[in-house]
Amino acid sequence: MTDLNQIVSTFSSDEQQQFINYLERKNKRNDTKNIQLFKLLSKQELDSKGICFKLYKANKSNAYHALRKRLYQSIIDFTANTNLSEENSVNMQIIKLILASRAFLFQHQFKVAYKLLDKAEVLAKEQFLFPYLNEIYHTKIQYAHTNQNIDLNALIKTFKSNQKKHFLEEELNMVYAKISSVMANITYKGEVVDFESMLS
Q1: pLDDT digits (tens, 9 = 90+) for 12-42
Q2: What is the pLDDT of residues 103-149, one digit of tens each?
Q3: DSSP letter string over 104-135?
Q4: How far is the C-alpha of 193 from the C-alpha of 180, rounded, in Å?
Q5: H/E run at residue 32
């Protein structure tokens, strides 16, 4: 699992300390060796056999590989949690509103739920967040029978219109990816490209 070594090597000293703190909070037992393994990998002084012997004072390769797997999973969890906490606050607010509204719908608190969905819709429209709008419209359609003020046909029309915008955004994303790939080939491989045919 050389991926683990590569990932650990990308951590800054500050990120290393944050991750060690994360492991300390997460560890339920005092004899867990994940922090020791992380520190040894960070130093990049020993190979796998050397690290294994340093941790276990013997060649316990099965225990060592199991420990590496657990550390790898902890790094994934840590990275995801860190990025979630840094995620755009408007996006997070919309997600929270959608989740809360679904909880209220499940509890038959329809008036409160729809207020939250309306608020989420306004925020998502302001930011052109088409995937979130899809979730909002899907939820509104699913529970339309609980709200007499909803024009279901108009809501379905809005939902389909948003789906088209979302699809167009995805298409533009793919075009951007293709152009970026061609530009990389020009830069790194010296390829000659006919821009007109590429754009068409």
Answers
A1: 989 999 999 999 998 887 778 899 999 988 9
A2: 999 999 999 999 999 999 999 999 999 999 999 999 999 999 998 88
A3: HHHTT-HHHHHHHHHHHHHHHHHTT-HHHHHH
A4: 13
A5: none
CA atoms within 13 A of residue 52's CA, in its CB half-sphere: 13
Give the span between the Cα atoms of 120 and 39, in whole angstroms: 43
- In contact, 94 and 123? CB cutoff 8 Å: yes
Letter for the amino acid at 121? Answer: E
What is the CB neighbour count within 10 angstroms for residue 189?
Answer: 7
Nearest to 17 by CA among 37, 50, 45, 39: 39
Q: Are 4 and 37 in contact (CB under 8 A)?
A: no
- C-beta atoms surrounding 176 within 10 Å: 10
Alpha-carbon torsion (79, 123, 137, 163), positive or negative = negative
Residues in the chain, overall count: 200
- Torsion 147-148-153-157 (CA) sign: negative
Question: How many Å from the N-terminal Cα to the C-terminal Cα in the chain?
Answer: 43
Sign of the CA dihedral running 74, 75, 76, 82: positive
Rounded distance, CA 29 to CA 184, Å?
49
